[in-house]
Amino acid sequence: MKTINPIRMGGVEVLPVVEGGKGVSVSNGASCGAWASAGGVGTFSAVNADSYDENGRPIPQIYHGKTRRERHEELVAYAIAGGITQAREAHERAGGRGRIHANILWEMGSAERVIRGILEKTRGLIHGITCGAGMPYRLADIARDFGVFYYPIVSSARAFNALWRRAYHKTREWLGGVVYEDPWLAGGHNGLSNSEDPRKPEDPYPRVLQLRKVMREFGLADTPIIMAGGVWWLEEWEDWIDNPDLGPIAFQFGTRPLLTKESPISDAWKQRLLTLKKGDVLLQPFSPTGFYSSAVRNDFLRELEERNERQVAYTTEPVGEHVAEYGVGPRKRPVWLTPLDLARVRAWEAQGFTEAMRTPDNTLIFVTREKHDEIIADQIACMGCLSQCRFSNWSQQGPDYTTGKKADPRSFCIQKTLQDIAHDGALERNLMFAGHNAYRFAEDPFYSNGFIPTVKELVERIMTGR
């Protein structure tokens, strides 16, 4: 393997290995601080992070507000307190080594308020902000105001071009690097555009080469690009390292840090990772954000797939082939289906999927009574964890705080399931994000006999190779 040299990032030299930020309470101060202590760039998630009681137990994020807006304010308070807690722990564990980054999602509820609230109380502890899941134009302003570096997460040169021309050119001195996240291989939410086919992965090299070309046009030849998604062994990327066409490159590891002693996920989740096979991670469109996302194909995702398959189009008047009348809801309000679809509906009802739910696309999905009640309860309990949500039709923009569309029962409450799995909830009943290379845990001799390394051991292994 080529010699891996330090890279200049965020004003200092660090190992070119970055911990990827992962969701609700999955990348925390412990994992982040350990990664930084090993000489790399650690990242904690500032998305509704945990705070702790006097006994060190996570404080449950319970909501008491009667309205979505009131619950949203509670969520913001929880998020700021949790982010401060994790930043302080990361700083203590890092011991002055490496760099500490906070990861936020631009589409999370009140993202700017949350990260500003965290940075206000952690001056000098956080060195950078990584941000994706949207087009974070204001990220640069936040970084400048608090004297930290910013690292936008993009999946194309076109996205960075738009961000630079609209906003980032004003604060170039605080741009620490650009994260290129492969939309077909990375775990969690992915930046697939409408012009890209989720079933046809593209080679990342020409896409990153195009990103560097655009960056050079803006005078950013020496600004690092951080390759994220699909990275396992650095020797598999030797043609990227010290490549003059690509310029300075670092590598982000999101999935591998899950299986470390410092990782806060449950032991059951860690053991599940060791059993995954190729193809067990699914790129799917069910997220309430509207983005594609990658997660382990468990019972939770299978139910969503099946729920979406039990779907028929309807009209409110008999039109064309829609001549078969069907009653929806307790009052049996009439809609019209095609005769073929009515026959399918009767078969679903015979299997116990008796409850029809309307979607914003003038279709009906069919679920059990139990699932119907769960969906309704989750929609009612919405706390505005996203800037806008197709599952509950929440929007953080006034005056109505709604998207103006019907809530979509084909999706799910992402806050509920991510909080649950992060705090030892059932693995089959919750969303389990992972990158598409997660199957390699089972094939990699490093993890033989169920070995789970410390973060320090993992970083050393990555840097020295197989």
CATH superfamily of the largest domain: Aldolase class I
Report the C-alpha radius of gyration, rounded: 23 Å
CATH architecture of the largest domain: Alpha-Beta Barrel
Number of strands: 18
Work out the strand percent: 15-25%
Helix content: 25-40%
What class, by secondary structure content? alpha/beta
Count of helical segments? 13
The backbone outline, from C-alpha atoms, is: globular
Characterise this structure.
The structure is a single chain. The protein has 466 residues and is α/β, with parallel strands linked by helices. The protein has 2 domains: 7-282 and 439-464, Aldolase class I (TIM Barrel), CATH 3.20.20.70; 299-422, no CATH class. Helix content is 31%, strand content 17%. It is built from 13 helices and 18 strands. It has helices at 29-37, 68-94, 111-120, 139-146, 157-166, 204-217, 267-273, 299-309, 339-350, 369-380, 414-422, 440-443, 455-464; strands at 7-9, 12-14, 17-19, 41-45, 99-105, 128-132, 149-154, 178-181, 188-190, 225-228, 249-253, 281-284, 292-296, 311-313, 324-328, 333-337, 355-358, 363-367. An 8-stranded parallel sheet has the order 3-11-10-8-7-6-5-4. Strands 9-13-12 form a 3-stranded antiparallel sheet, with no helix packed on it. α5 (157-166) runs parallel beside α6 (204-217). The longest helix is centred in the first third of the chain and has 27 residues, at 68-94. It is globular and about 70 Å long. The protein starts with 6 loop residues before the first strand and ends with a helix. The mean pLDDT is 94.
